[in-house]
């Protein structure tokens, strides 16, 4: 009967743990990407709703479930965060276009991350099978030694 090297089992277990950690990190990233996508979509809806609102009065959440009724002074322009604490003023239509482009980029990034997760899960499954086979051989060898 074939002997199983304990170092091989240990190495396989280490790889499996690393893949599990990578999958967890990528899953968190995927959640953040989805959150950003949803926020961008909500911003587009809000910009369009403000454009359609005749009196320019909107509800502004201030936390704790409290809202203020506020009047939007300039419905034609929006401040858009470009990243790194940089915001620029854009016409509402330009802001919507920018946010739609951001959503497209986020969707592409989400697909790429989801593909990476799927690939890692496949590799983890293969390692898991090899690890289980190694455990089986070790159990059979141990049973063979006990029976002698």
Automatic annotation (TrEMBL):
Pfam family, one: Prefoldin
Record keywords: Chaperone, Cytoplasm
Annotated InterPro entries: PFD_alpha_archaea, Prefoldin, Prefoldin_subunit_alpha
SUPFAM superfamilies reported for this sequence: Prefoldin
GO CC list: cytoplasm; prefoldin complex
GO molecular function terms attached to this record: unfolded protein binding
Record GO biological process: protein folding
Keyword Chaperone: yes
Subcellular location: Cytoplasm
Keyword Cytoplasm: yes
Function (record text): Molecular chaperone capable of stabilizing a range of proteins. Seems to fulfill an ATP-independent, HSP70-like function in archaeal de novo protein folding.
Oligomeric form and interacting partners: Heterohexamer of two alpha and four beta subunits.
Family recorded in the similarity comment: Belongs to the prefoldin subunit alpha family.
Cross-referenced NCBIfam families: prefoldin subunit alpha
This protein's name: Prefoldin subunit alpha
Source organism (scientific name): Methanoculleus bourgensis (strain ATCC 43281 / DSM 3045 / OCM 15 / MS2) (Methanogenium bourgense)
